Amino acid sequence: MNSFQNILYALGAGSLIFLTACKGNDGQDPTKEGEAVEVHMHEEGGAMEVALTSDQYKIAGIETNKVEIRNLTGLVHVNGELDVPPQNLQSISAPAAGFLKSSDLLQGSRVYKGQAIAVIRNPEFIQWQQDYLETVNQLEADRSHLEYLESEYRRQEELAKENINATKTLQSAKAEYHSMKSSIAGLEARLGGQSARLQLLGINPQLLKPDNYFSEITIFSPTSGYVMAVNVNAGKYISNTDVLFQIADTKHLHAELTVFEKDILKLKVGQKVRFTLANETRERTATIFLFGREISEDRGIRVHCHLDKEDIELLPGMYFKAVVETGASPVPSVPEAAIVSSEGKDYIFVVEKAVEPEAEMKEEKMSDIDKEVHEEGQEKGEHHADQHFKMVEVKKGLTDETFVEVILPQDFDIANNLVVTKGAFYLLSAFKSASEGEEGHAH
């Protein structure tokens, strides 16, 4: 009894055969009534095989070919957004605190350099002008008095040489003269600061008169571009540190890519980028110019690209999808449809030799010509017997629009192995269905 159980265990561990109900590429059921898709799972090495009859093979639309060595232009798919360099984005603040009297700017408005964009009002502006004029008048009076003190000081020096006056008188004249010089130097420094403050407000100090004071100032745009942000409204009190508006000069937009860490080594300065905006079908191009040196929390790296053709109608913040061409190199490759994924791994199906009942007996009876025709049919994908396909794990490399580089096992025979290039997904479905035990039985 124990021996019988051991035999059953050995048969069960050697291979399992399941029925599947997967449909072929044309919607037909490749597993006709009474025919089973065989799935063999060999424990040694973890090899997995799927077997089809010739009819199932045809209905499933299986096509095979060898792994090809192709010059693939690698493509890295990324996302990004348009942005402006810091020097092209202007944050505009008021030169002094006050109340916003008026502004016609709206977000998205086009503005030009030198255009009036806001009016600020503050009664303190009048006081600053008065202070300036008072300093001017005081400075003129002190300069006039300095001339008198200087002449008096020189006269006392001459008298001291002739011993006519007392030394105390000379020292007093000298002190008054140097004190006035210091006072004038202070007034000149104060006047310079007051003049600079008025010029910052847009008021020309040279045109100031007691009957011509200004209580309002006008802010002008320092650049041409589009209004990106409006942070104020009429009547609001603003300080000189508040950002009133942001204006972007869109003549020199650049494209900022977000490239994942695993792809960054594939990119180089000078590579071409093809991108399409979310609201367009038109493809635009850019060139990689600079790489960021910081990895974000989502393992992304910023890549700075210059647009090959400027367009002032584009706006910062627009999102796009892009592909980066990483250059051509000869690599083993298969059509994209030849690779299937399961549980985080990638596989291809390799054609095993067809198995026919009493194959050895048939081959003995075949003539040399028949054998040659039979073998040629096998190479062309003409199958007249149950065909076995082995799942082989691979890794993906470069990818273009139709072909994918495959990193194959070291013992893979590229010259002689045929790979399923069409119908691989069907074979994977057959294996999955069988391994889950759907409508299956074991032999």
Describe the SSE topology:
Blueprint: H1 2-14, E1 38-41, E2 48-52, H2 54-59, E3 63-65, E4 68-83, E5 89-93, E6 98-102, E7 110-111, E8 116-121, H3 124-161, H4 167-200, E9 216-220, E10 225-230, E11 237-238, E12 243-248, E13 254-260, E14 272-277, E15 284-295, E16 300-307, E17 319-335, E18 340-342, E19 345-351, H5 359-365, H6 368-379, E20 387-399, E21 403-407, E22 419-422, H7 424-435
Antiparallel strand pairs: 1-2, 2-20, 3-22, 4-13, 4-17, 5-12, 6-8, 6-11, 7-10, 8-9, 10-12, 13-16, 14-15, 14-17, 15-16, 17-21, 18-19, 19-20, 20-21
Helix pairs in contact: 3-4
Structural description of this entry:
This protein is α+β, with helices and mostly antiparallel strands and 443 residues long. The protein is 28% helix and 33% strand. It is built from seven helices and 22 strands. The strands form four sheets. The chain has a six-stranded antiparallel β-barrel with strand order 4-13-16-15-14-17. A four-stranded antiparallel β-sheet has the order 5-12-10-7, with no helix packed on it. β1 and β2 form a beta hairpin. It starts with a helix and ends in an 8-residue tail after the last helix.
